[in-house]
Every structure is written in structure tokens, then in C-alpha cells.
Specification:
Two copies of one chain form a homodimer.
Chain A (H helix, E strand, L loop, with lengths): L11 H14 L13 E4 L13 H16 L9 H5 L3 H6 L1 H11 L6 H14 L15 H12 L3 E9 H5 L2 H5 L6 E13 L2 E12 L5 H9 L6 E4 L5 H8 L6 E6 L20 H4 L1 H4 L2 E4 H4 L7
Parallel strand pairs in A: 1-2, 1-5, 2-3, 5-6, 6-7
Antiparallel strand pairs in A: 3-4
Helix pairs in contact in A: 2-5
Chain lengths: 305, 305
């Protein structure tokens, strides 16, 4: 037998996870949960992969904006295009999380979902993370890959519930996380079925459908899953509603929060990361019943080899 | 070995299904489809269960409207309340499919999803179908229960994609069809997370989110599944876009259409059922490559014992 969760140190977080999974899978115990109800939801940016200095999808939008400005130089004078072209982080942060993502979504309007995902896949394998200097599929957190697999081995169905674009995440979630497209929930734009020459495509429109953050996360869990999760994992105040909604269901539940406190192996940040701060959820984690996960203390290893 | 699909007669439809499943599951053959891509989508009303004289959810709304009018008699004078209270089919049909469903959704605004589903489950077991005189969980089509199970045995993931309300269908789909909530897609109202005394609930609002019919079905497949199905099954023009979107993907595909042509064992209807007519899709089925399924000829048995 290999040890469970080898990239987790033998601390409180790892022990709490193993205890929880043992309790809900013990058919003779008081906390048993039938397999179909073992729903686990994970935020993506900052929970499953690195979101510093900016969320990966924002970095992707930089390159798309550059390509668009090449085709139409007048764009370079307009905001927020200008900020994205100049990688002007101060101006970008001014837009706020939703504003930035809306722009990142808008630059792909008019493409079919399938063509968009081809472009995402090409970019993800070719581009390198500016700070970690490795391909994007390797900026995922190794302890979380192990946790996802561990939960699935114990009959859990694992979902992503993230502010990131749903079509963007689905382009790699199956290969990288083992999570199929139908278990990825995210922000979305409206799409429209278009017929051309007898062929049917779903085209991405420039209209936001849902920005999947804060109280919208539980609403999207209601819409897409239709069952309250028994485990939720996040890393910011944007995840608080999802964590507390999960904990509030009947029976045994678990909510976890990554605290990025390791400046040696990645970036230490919490309340000062304006785009997605961690403040109240950190301060009141114990009161809410949320298990803190310290990158420094709980993760023996951060990224895959 | 028991025979596959025993409630299907040994006709063209059954043979086409068995051929298709054999082809896409033959790992050495040219039409092989890996398991995660074996997505099958089914309409619900008229495809998986009886929608005559009206869709079950409309009948459910009759009873809810009656209870509301008891509490507030002034409602009885207002349309469309009046039509629902008097079961005035002509006036109800005037509302059109979307209008009727909007009303059926609106009468449950202000409830939490969980409370709503408790009510649906109670009603479904207590009430009886007005024409078939049996409990609603038994107005499902036996051949379709067998087909759902047959597909799942061959590695398919089965989904519902219906104009019916998603929370309504999820209240019984797992027990009746073996389809878990997260694989049920339907029309939906907006919901809102409400906190009360430290408890969190998703409340149904009076605002329509999506009416899942016609071109909206493929768009919702894109949003919820994120992968083009390889098999789709419907029964009305409202399913045409989903059937053709499915057939248009690469590789081998299958689309099927129930034609209700048996007035002895259930109701024969097609182009005259105003709420959800079958006209163009029937006339052009062969041209589109859609396999017709005749209730009279292809189903040896219609309802479960």
C-alpha cells in the first residue's frame, strides 16, 4: 500500500481529510453518505492551480488582445485594450475581477466554442508561465491532484466551480485534473446556435451569462449539480458562500481553504491581492468551521516534477 | 443472456440502436468512441414519459394554483390563474408552451429548491394521471427505461435535456430513470442564495433564466455538458435543433424521434398538439438522418406493469 496523499505533510489538514473520507464512506457508521451524494466542489484559480501574478485566463487574454491589435491597430489606443497590451497591472487591477474577466471573455466573442478550445489548447502547451517558467499544465498544485484522485477513488464525483470561463477550463480540465467537461462549472457568456451550410455550431456572444463568484457559486451549483456538495475547497472570499452553503447541509460536511503563505515555493498573498482577496474568510475560518490549509506547513510539495 | 431491449419489437429502430451501440463500443472498429465521449441526451416530456393531455408539470401547477387560490380567493378572477383553476384547456393552450411553463414555474417562486422538491415528490406519489389512471412514476415509457439502462451498460452517460423545469425533473429522475440531478438539464428560473439565522438556501425567484426548447437546447448542452452528444432522442419540433446538432458532429452519430401513432395504448398525436407539435421534423426526418420510432410498430409494450 502506498501512503495516501503523499504530497501532504502529516498535519491537521491531511488528517482531517482522511478522517472525513473514512467517516462518509463507512457504510456501518453514523456519517455514511451514499455514493451518488458524494459531491466535491473545487474552485480553480488559486485552489487547483497558481493564480499569481494574474489568473491564467487573463494572461491568455493578453496574447489574444495582442493578436487583435495587430489586425486592427486602432484598438491599441482604447482602454481596456491598452492596459492589456501593455500588461499594465495597475490599470488592469482597476477593472476589478469581474471587469477583467468580462474583457477576457469579450475578446473571444464570435468564435465557436470548439474553435475557441482548439486555440486554448494550443496556447496552453506552447506558452510558459511568466513567473514559474513552466508550461501552464504544470502550474497545478500536486497535493490537489492527489486529493482529487483520492476523493474519486472513494466514490466522490469531483467538480470545478470557478470564476474562470467554463469553455476555457474545459479545454484542459479532463487531461490535467481528470475532470470531464460536464463537471466543470464556471463563468460563461451567452452562446447561440448558428447554422451554416447545414452545419451547426455554438457561437460565443459578447454578452455575459453568469459571473461565477461569491453568492453566484451556490446558485450555479443549484443549476448545474442540483445537489448540495458535501465537500468544498476554495482559497478566497469569492469562495466563502460556496464553503458555507456546503457546510450548512445535513450530515457530516467539510470545507477547506488554501492559505498561500509560502513565498519561497510560490507567492505568499491573501488580503492584498485585490483581484481575489482572502480576508473575512481567513479571519473567521474557525468560526465558520472551515479547515485552513497552509501551503507552507501542509503541502510537502507544491508543483509536479 | 437475456435479450437486449425486450420491450422493443425486432424492427428497424431496435436494430439501428443495437448496430450503433455495437459500432461505437468496438475498440477495434472505425467508429469507436472512447467512454467519456459517449454522451446521450433525451428529451423528457413525450420522449421518456407521457405528455398527454398536458405535460405532467402543468398538471402539477393546476394543484398548486388551486392551493394558492384557496389562500387568496382574489387570484381566481385573474388570468392565467382562472384558466388553470378551471382546467380550461383552450385558454391554457392560448398561452403557448413557454407561457404555460412560465406560469407553472411562477407559482413556486419564493420557495427554496429543497422545499419545492419535497412538494414535487409528495405530489408525484399521491396524485394519479387523469387519463392513464396510474401514479406518475408509472407513466414513463418502458422501452425508454430499457434503452437508458442499455446505453449505460455500454459506457454511455445519459442526460435529460428538456423544456420541463430542472428542479421538477430532478425530484424524480434519479429514482425513476436512474439519471442523477447533475445530468438533468431543463428550463430554469433564477435562484438566489439567502441566509437566514446562519442557514443558507437557494430560493426560486419569479424570473425565468432559460426556457430550454428549440435552439436553446444545444446552447444548454454547450453550457452544461460542454461536449457534443453522440446520441439524441426527442419527439417534437422542439427537439429538432438538438437532434441535428448531435448528428452534425464528427464520427458516427445517432438521432431518434418518437412518433406517437398509437391511439389504443396511449394517445396518437403529432402536428395538432399545439403545445409541442411534431411537423417539420417528422416530414424531413429521413432527409435529416433521423431514425423514426413508431410507438405502434416499434414498442412491444408502452408502460411498465
Amino acid at each position: 500500500m502506498t501512503q495516501a496523499l503523499p504530497s501532504w505533510t502529516d498535519g491537521a489538514a491531511r488528517r482531517a481529510i482522511i478522517d472525513f473520507v473514512a467517516a462518509v464512506t463507512d457504510a456501518a457508521g453514523p456519517d455514511y453518505v451514499p455514493t451518488p451524494e458524494r459531491i466535491a466542489v473545487f474552485d480553480n484559480d488559486g485552489t487547483l492551480w497558481c493564480e499569481q501574478p494574474l489568473q491564467v485566463q487573463v494572461l491568455f487574454a493578453f496574447d489574444r488582445a495582442a493578436a487583435m491589435a495587430k489586425a486592427d491597430p486602432s484598438l491599441a489606443q482604447r482602454q481596456p485594450f491598452k492596459a492589456f497590451l501593455e500588461h499594465d497591472q495597475a490599470a488592469i487591477h482597476e477593472l476589478g475581477k469581474e471587469g477583467i474577466f468580462e474583457f477576457a471573455f469579450a475578446v473571444h466573442a464570435g468564435m465557436s466554442i470548439e474553435a475557441f478550445q482548439d486555440e486554448v489548447r494550443q496556447w496552453l502547451t506552447a506558452a510558459r508561465h511568466p513567473k514559474l517558467d513552466r508550461p501552464y499544465p504544470q502550474v497545478v498544485y500536486q497535493p490537489q491532484l492527489e486529493l482529487l484522485a483520492y476523493l474519486r477513488e472513494h466514490g466522490f464525483k469531483t467538480f470545478i466551480v470557478s470564476g474562470g470561463g467554463v469553455d476555457f477550463m474545459r479545454a484542459f480540465a479532463e487531461q490535467v485534473y481528470g475532470i470531464p467537461p460536464e463537471q466543470v462549472i464556471g463563468s460563461s457568456v451567452k452562446t447561440e446556435l448558428q447554422e451554416s451550410g447545414g452545419h451547426f455550431s455554438l457561437m460565443k456572444l459578447a454578452k455575459l451569462d453568469t459571473f461565477d463568484d461569491r453568492a453566484v457559486k451556490p446558485a450555479n451549483i443549484g443549476l448545474h449539480i442540483g445537489r448540495r456538495p458535501i465537500l468544498a475547497f476554495g482559497n478566497s472570499d469569492g469562495d466563502q458562500a460556496m464553503l458555507r452553503y456546503t457546510l450548512d447541509g445535513p450530515g457530516r460536511r467539510m470545507a477547506l481553504l488554501v492559505h498561500h503563505d509560502d513565498n519561497e515555493r510560490e507567492t505568499a498573498y491573501d488580503r492584498d491581492f485585490k483581484l481575489s482577496p482572502l480576508t473575512e474568510t481567513l479571519d473567521r475560518a474557525e468560526e465558520f468551521g472551515i479547515q485552513l490549509v497552509s501551503v507552507k506547513r501542509d503541502w510537502a510539495k507544491v508543483f509536479p516534477d
